[in-house]
């Protein structure tokens, strides 16, 4: 017989997450709060690790781990797959599971379908970067990529900036043209599906590069970047030139511990070449959100924000969803022990 009372966990599946009706402002609020906690030193972040389960298959798992203190007080681990050729099998390229535990006792609290959370929090991190680092009057968005997180990049950025022009492009027309149509429907404004990288990027106030390349290839040219722009490159395989960091007034990352290690990431070559280092890094995003360092200080600054993806963002958004689910009576309660 067990000496402790029964232990239960909450389970939120994909339909449960959809039923929550989480709002744009709720997503942005949860992520901004977690970034502030990070900046204030109230969090623990372990660098993500990668599992390549089958050398014969192009794909891997990312394992993200972290904990948040303060009034959230929760730990979590997310395992997310990245198998970019899954579209050939009619499957999502990214699927994820988030587990939440008590930070103090290790007691399991929840299992959450986290594919949607991954997309939402990625878009929210992009948007938070723009809130603090882009020019306030930014009116043109150029977005490369049409994967799941791309939708939330555009949607949440537009929530903050209400762009006059949004341009989207990706590797496959059968991907970016329906992507533009969905955005038009949901945002209620014209979206330009353009056919080249240059037309997407040149003259844009905010440039987001979320491509899905099979190998590093410098398709985004430094010369296309408008002075004073914010550039957010986060493709797994680099699509930018080594010279990109040379034109930047400030280099900002989400977590330097993650950015300086590993084999993947859009600025991996820049780290190895010493162009992005502890000496050239301006700040982590959390330091800026917490008010420890200023973000953009004038319209002339050209700024780069590289985010690898924070476990803290997954944990914070998952926790916010769990609390909302409890209020609305959504999800299932499972006996654990």
Automatic annotation (TrEMBL):
InterPro entries linked: NAD(P)-bd_dom_sf, ODC_Mu_crystall, ODC_N
Signal peptide as annotated in the record: none
A Gene Ontology term for the protein's cellular component: cytoplasm
Family designation: Belongs to the ornithine cyclodeaminase/mu-crystallin family.
Protein known as: Ornithine cyclodeaminase family protein
Originating species: Xanthobacter tagetidis
Upper lineage: Bacteria, Pseudomonadati, Pseudomonadota, Alphaproteobacteria, Hyphomicrobiales
